[in-house]
Amino acid sequence: MEVLATSSASSTYPLFTLDNPNKPFSFTFNPIIISQVHPWKSFPVKKIEARLLCRILCKRTNLDNSGSWRSSTNAICKHKFVFHALCRPNKNFTSQSGLFAIRHGHLLRSWNTSSHQKVNSHSQKIREHFSVVFVRLVAAMLLVTSASVALSNTPSWALSEENLLFLEAWRTIDRAYIDKTFNGQSWFRYREDALRNEPMNNREETYMAIRKMLATLNDPFTRFLEPEKFKSLRSGTQGALTGVGLSIGYPTESEGSRTGLVVISATPGGPANQAGISSGDIILEIDNASTESMGIYDAAERLQGPEGSSVELTVQTGPEIKHLALTRAKISLNPVKSRPCEVPGSEKNYPKIGYIRLTSFNQKASAAVKEAIDTLRSNNVNAFVLDLRDNSGGLFPEGIETAKIWLDKGVIVYICDNRGVRDIYDTDGSSAIAASEPLAVLVNKGTASASEILAGALKDNKRAVLFGEPTYGKGKIQSVFQLSDGSGLAVTVAHYETPAHNDINKVGVIPDHPLPNSFPKDDDGFCGCLQDPAAACYVNNVQLFKR
């Protein structure tokens, strides 16, 4: 006989039908779990107890000693009988296959038959099939997840050429900018919002969107450069520039609440220098435009222009306010001037001093310093003075290479971000050509950026004695990145600490000794102050190199 198990969604209990060739009938029962469901790897058998709800006619089945089946008919099920499930019921009755023992009055022991081997084989096939399906399912889930992540990193809509340029600028900031909180905002969300909401239908609108993005960082040194500005910046670091010869910056905390832009340095011989503008002066207006809220790079652009054109400046020197008209000229950025300076009556104490004035760090700086040292040595100098006053900086690598000229070993600068020291620049002395002669370094508030790195390295490594006044205090480093259309970004990538781990931002490098207020900034005047004890600027050459 066969017993077929079925179930209905509307029925509380499963319905079992006994296949009787003579008289089909059915009964319902409430299953009571006797043993726990075995794991998938085990042979899934359940023993259940069923309580008949009605009297039925059925076949009584006996199992003889040989293992073969014999049956006899009885009118009422008062004896033991066995149901062999041939299929798996639905979710309301969970069992894969096996023997069910039903009792009516007595408990029947479940019998194991040769069908178990078939069931085992069937279960093994199911498990193998399930494993394959499971692996495929996991692979499909991973593929979908990867696709979702990839799609989340890029907008779901088609990107135009203007969008791609904006994204190029966004990625540059994302990779290089020092502050990984991006001034306390979600940088990824800003990208998505900008691509949805900012108009980028032409190049000018895209440039405006990039400028707006950079403004959210609240960093005046991180700025966008249109193609012409980027080209002009590169030409400035390569040795030539057309303008008035001014290096400008923002007023420092020590300068109080003064409005406008401060003059860091005026290039010797340039139009501004010839007009009497000097370090510390305040530029109030450029061509009648107030500088109170003007950025330094906007101001620099206004100061530059075609050779021979004019620009009007309103400049404050102390309490005096001057209105000046300057004619732009080509500024030759030869960064080094040098000369030997003889000191009478000091045959035993540095009778001949080599004076080197370094005005900027362009691509020629370190090579020009080496050349000046060689020239001065041919004049038998036995000490050096390096004048970094009004040197507003320039190329960071040139500052590092210049420091290596004077140091036989040691740390030059620590490069740091918000998580601490990121990189260390040091030297093993292989590039040193003047590591032994006495050295004095002159600094002032116009000494900034790369020149502060050099001054700090020479001071902290006890290679030089510093004279003058605290430096400007620009302790942040910018790198310039070119975009695909020829425009560029100047990005604050780090801040630096001196070898003694001093963060000089807005503080500056503190010199060892002051200089007289009247100390000149030209080479002839410098030599005169060493040679004439009666001069107001006189400095004893022995004291110049004493710690």
TrEMBL record:
Keywords: Hydrolase, Protease, Serine protease. Gene3D superfamilies: 2-enoyl-CoA Hydratase, Chain A, domain 1, 2.30.42.10, 3.30.750.44. Pfam families: PDZ_6, Peptidase_S41. Residues 230-304 form the PDZ domain. The keyword Hydrolase applies. InterPro entries: ClpP/crotonase-like_dom_sf, PDZ, PDZ_6, PDZ_sf, Peptidase_S41A, Tail-specific_protease. NCBIfam families: prc. Belongs to the peptidase S41A family. PANTHER family: CARBOXYL-TERMINAL-PROCESSING PEPTIDASE 2, CHLOROPLASTIC, TAIL-SPECIFIC PROTEASE. This is Carboxyl-terminal-processing peptidase 2, chloroplastic isoform X1. It comes from Gossypium hirsutum. The gene is LOC121206388.
